[in-house]
Protein: BURP domain-containing protein
Amino acid sequence: MVTSVTQSLGDTHNIRVVSMDGVRTDALMPYKIMGVNQIAEGRSLIACHRLSFPYGVYYCHQPRGATTFSVSLVGSKDGARFDAYAMCHHQTTGWKPEYIAFKVLGEQPGSTVPFFPA
Structure:
């Protein structure tokens, strides 16, 4: 998967990988945001999402009209520090109204939708 992404982007110097495997912290505890930095925009990013299968299956795509940010966090209970990644989709006009993010955020197609990978 990493080889495919690097071949598509043509740049191996700014690849970010997010994995929660082995992270030992309470994901639901309050966190303090220490900083936010934009790291990619538009066609300069590829997002890969794990799909619900009993084995590793990923869906990789280049979202149009999206901006990705690195967010530095510190856990309020245990002081755990890590970077999370958030992607804001700006072009959602063609998305289905039933999409879960619209329901959670009380929005509709055409709205900017943030995505925070777990």
Summary: Residues 29-44+64-115 form one domain.
